[in-house]
Design goal:
The structure holds 2 protein chains of 2 kinds. By secondary structure, chain A is an alpha+beta fold. In chain A, 19% of the residues lie in helices and 44% in strands. Chain A has a 6-stranded antiparallel β-sheet with strand order 1-6-2-3-4-5. Chain A starts with a strand and ends in a 5-residue tail after the last strand. By secondary structure, chain B is α/β, with parallel strands linked by helices. Chain B is 65% helix and 9% strand. In chain B, the strands form 2 sheets. In chain B, strands 2-3-4-1-5-6-8 form a 7-stranded mixed β-sheet, sandwiched between helices. In chain B, α3 packs across α10 and α23 crosses α24. The longest helix of chain B is centred in the middle third of the chain and has 50 residues. Chain B starts with a strand and ends with a helix. Classes of the chains: A alpha+beta, B alpha/beta. Chains A and B meet through α1, β3, β4 and β5 of A and α3, α10, α11, α16 and β10 of B. β5 of chain A pairs antiparallel with β10 of chain B.
């Protein structure tokens, strides 16, 4: 499956995996970026504004680059 | 019988509204020991039980990444609650189940509250309560906290959970469970008795690297620790998967409806437009508020003070103590708000006629902005530039509030998440953001020379604040300000919630800040009475004339600046100064020392050691900047 960082995503995607340090991994999963979750990127500029499970989250570019998205998720 | 309950949940899920609904008006606000994070406590009585409630700061996980989250974790471990109420947003319940599972690992009965069920129903999200309760083995309550729907069932479920004896921990795969068993056995023997109950939680959280449990890391042998990183990721992944499985079984959505962002949301995250629009909006809001504060909080009470209060209190005290130390301590030697330095004159007027009305207004407005959902939006657009000086976008409002009064500004930093950020924001505003009264005097003094001196003054302050911020950001340890926040929906503020929050915050100021303001005035009065101030002025006059190239009498203004900076700047009007000397004097009065009110608040918020650090930084900065200006003054004549 072809995956790309969330910072490149335009429109819909599925969280494939989360990279980064243990702290970043823990933080992102506790916020809801778990593999398999559907997301929609609303704004992809200096910050990334993403919709996940009826919530809108705003993330730094740096942190968003740790979220790999694709059309399905990696187990 | 007492039941101790802790309310836990993500930020902006309605915990405080539920807390207020259950406790009425008896909440007590306090800072968690050693921090500046607010914890609310209150009581409810139900069916013969006294339910003691603690409302904790919003958290996404019990493995903290911010000070507020750390406080939540510590409150749970230290208070050892009988029941934990997890408040979740019904519209995004899948994201909240991760925290529910984490809470279940504590071995404490949990009640899951799905708040905003009306909004979930509007989105055609169906939560099958019984199924969800069966899968998690805990009571479930659905509610609409803002309409007080579901509060009685919640109280019933708290009692039901309290009476339950069996607690089911979430079970991971066999491999993880084997590893956890091993870790738990090793840890249990060495745990202090107060934490024995949390042995499984401790084992899991040591593996996850929870900093709250750092002092117990030594209890795990090195050969087990080697595998922490691998197991840590596995535990987190399995927990997220468990949450998904529960969600799939207990929640159904007829059709996924995607959220629509409003135009203002798109604008606020665009760097150029966002910052421009939000700057204008922030300044408009702030200055209109400050205008009101100035009128109501200063002019009207000032008239009342001069015409009624001071003559009245002076008459009473002079009939008891016509002169001497007691007379001077209580009402001062001279009349007037600034001149008397008496506890019942200057002290009362500072606290009740100046600070309190300002605080009341600003807390109300801050509360409205918080509840409206505007603060996170402002935070986003200012995040990038502020990050360079070690602050996050959240610091925008406290910094702007500091232009009204640094006391209010410092108190407003309580909304900031990390301690480093709170300290930096407080220091920068005490040092480089003059209060409104002082700004009026600065305009008066520098404006009579040329407007360019006023511009030079503000540019100078801005460059000092930016430089100091960058340096502090480099050298101060602490959390880096990563932007990661949830954009709450626009909400209509609830009057009751707003008033209660403001009341609790003002009460907290009255209890902690006011005694220190009185103490500061008492000390300043004593220094005048004993002649210490005159001695200080004499001591520092060589620095004044040789280094700063200022007349030695400016020393008196500098000493007075400890009490009131606006008065100190006003005193400069009586001296013969060149325009450059006036600029230098105004600058060093601004930079050199916090006024007594700010000093009191800094002491109450950051304690002695860090307040001394602030004073040292201010003195060094003012000396360096003052010397440079003095040098320039001697060159330019």
């Amino acid at each position: 499956m072809r995956t790309q960082p969330l910072t490149i995503l335009r429109g819909y995607g599925i969280v494939a995996r989360v990279e980064g340090s243990s702290e970043e991994f823990r933080r992102l999963l506790s916020l809801g970026f778990a593999p398999g979750r559907k997301i929609k990127s609303h704004v992809n500029g200096s910050v990334v504004v993403v919709e996940i499970d009826n919530s809108i989250l705003v993330i730094d570019h740096q942190l968003a680059s740790k979220i790999m998205v694709g059309d399905r998720y990696e187990d | 019988m007492k039941i101790k309950v802790v309310l836990v949940g993500h930020p902006n899920v309605g915990k405080s509204v539920i807390f207020n609904n259950l406790t009425g008006l008896n909440a007590i606000i306090s800072n968690y020991p050693g921090t500046t994070v607010e914890v609310y406590r209150g009581r409810a009585r139900w069916k013969g039980f006294t339910i003691e409630l603690v409302d904790t700061p919003g958290t996404y996980s019990l493995v903290p990444t911010t000070q507020a989250e750390e406080v939540t974790c510590r409150v749970i471990l230290e208070e050892r609650p009988d029941v934990i109420v997890h408040v979740a947003d019904a519209t995004s319940i899948r994201r909240h189940l991760y925290l529910t599972l984490e809470l279940l690992e504590l071995g404490v009965p949990v009640v899951l509250v799905a708040n905003q069920i009306d909004r979930a129903e509007a989105l055609e999200i169906k939560i099958r309560e019984e199924e969800l309760g069966r899968l998690l083995n805990i009571p479930i309550v659905v509610c609409v906290a803002t309409k007080k729907i579901g509060m009685t069932p919640l109280l019933d479920k708290i009692i039901e959970a309290y009476k339950r004896s069996s607690i089911a921990y979430p079970r991971y795969s066999k491999r993880i469970e084997r590893y956890l068993d091993l870790a738990e056995k090793t840890v249990r023997e060495k745990l202090p008795s107060r934490l024995k109950h949390f042995s499984r939680f401790t084992a899991v959280h040591l593996i996850l690297g929870n900093r709250v449990l750092d002092n117990l890391a030594h209890t795990i042998p090195e050969q087990l620790k080697v595998e922490f990183p691998e197991y840590s990721r596995q535990i987190i992944l399995e927990r997220a998967k468990m949450a998904d499985q529960i969600y799939e079984k207990a929640v159904s959505i007829r059709e996924v409806k995607h959220l629509k962002l409003r135009k203002i949301d798109y604008i606020s995250v665009s760097p150029v437009f966002g910052i421009t629009i939000m700057t204008v909006l922030t300044l408009l809001v702030t200055y209109s508020i400050l205008g009101v504060i100035h009128e109501i909080g200063h002019r009207i009470p000032s008239t009342f003070y001069h015409n009624f209060y001071e003559p009245f209190i002076r008459k009473i005290i002079e009939s008891v103590a016509p002169q001497g130390l007691l007379h001077d301590i209580l009402i001062g030697e001279k009349a007037g708000i600034y001149g008397s330095l008496g506890l019942l004159t200057t002290g009362v007027s500072f606290v009740f006629f100046m600070i309190l009305p300002s605080i009341l207004f600003l807390y109300l407005v801050l509360g409205i902005l918080e509840d409206l959902g505007l603060l996170p939006r402002i935070a986003i657009s200012f995040h990038r530039p502020l990050r360079k000086i070690g602050l996050s976008g959240d610091a925008t409002m406290p910094l702007v509030a500091g232009t009204g009064c640094s006391i209010v500004g410092v108190l407003s930093t309580r909304i900031l998440r990390s301690d480093k950020e709170r300290f930096t924001a407080s220091l920068l505003q005490v040092l480089g953001i003059p209060c409104m009264a002082q700004q009026v005097m600065i305009w008066h003094i520098l404006g009579k020379y040329d407007l360019s001196y006023i511009s030079a003054f503000y540019l100078l302050l801005l460059s000092i604040v930016v430089t100091l911020g960058i340096v502090l950001n480099r050298i101060t340890p602490g959390e880096t300000c990563i932007l990661l926040l949830e954009l709450p929906p626009w909400r209509k503020p609830q009057l009751r919630n707003l008033l209660k929050k403001t009341y609790a915050r003002v009460l907290s100021f009255l209890k902690t800040g006011v005694p220190l303001v009185f103490l500061g005035i008492f000390i300043a009065n004593l220094a005048y009475y004993t002649g210490a101030i005159a001695l200080i002025a004499r001591l520092f006059s060589p620095i004044m004339s040789n280094l700063l190239k200022l007349p030695s009498e400016v020393c008196i203004a500098l000493v007075v600046s400890i009490l009131r900076k606006d008065v100190a700047v006003g005193i400069l009007g009586g001296y013969k100064l060149t325009p450059f000397q006036a600029l230098t004097a105004v600058t060093i009065i601004t930079l050199s020392f916090p006024c007594v009110g700010s000093l009191g608040i800094m002491l109450s918020e950051f304690r002695v050691r860090r307040t001394l650090k602030v004073i040292a930084i201010m003195l060094v900065t003012s000396l360096v900047v003052g010397s440079l200006l003095g040098f320039l003054s001697s060159i330019l004549g």
